[in-house]
Amino acid sequence: MPEWIRKLLFWGFIAFLIYFMAFRPDGAANIFKAIGAGLVAMFQGLGDFLTSLAP
Question: What domain of life does the UniProt record list for this protein's source (predicted)?
């Protein structure tokens, strides 16, 4: 993929995030909470797996 397309997509994504947070703060907060909860669940599962490997 050409470099200019990657830069365009990156800055477009950043602009969308700023727009989304400015005009739909409740929706943006809910999305970030869901992402955070998913990450916590993923690391909790990894921790449980590693704990079960210990003798």
Answer: Bacteria
CA distance 15 to 55: 50
48 within some domain: yes
9 is a domain residue? no
Give me the phi and psi of 9, to 5 degrees please.
Answer: -65, -40
Q: Which amino acid is at 9?
A: L
Total of domains in the chain: 1
Query: Per residue of the chain (55 residues), what is the pLDDT tens digit?
Result: 789 999 999 999 999 999 989 999 999 999 999 999 999 999 999 999 999 998 7
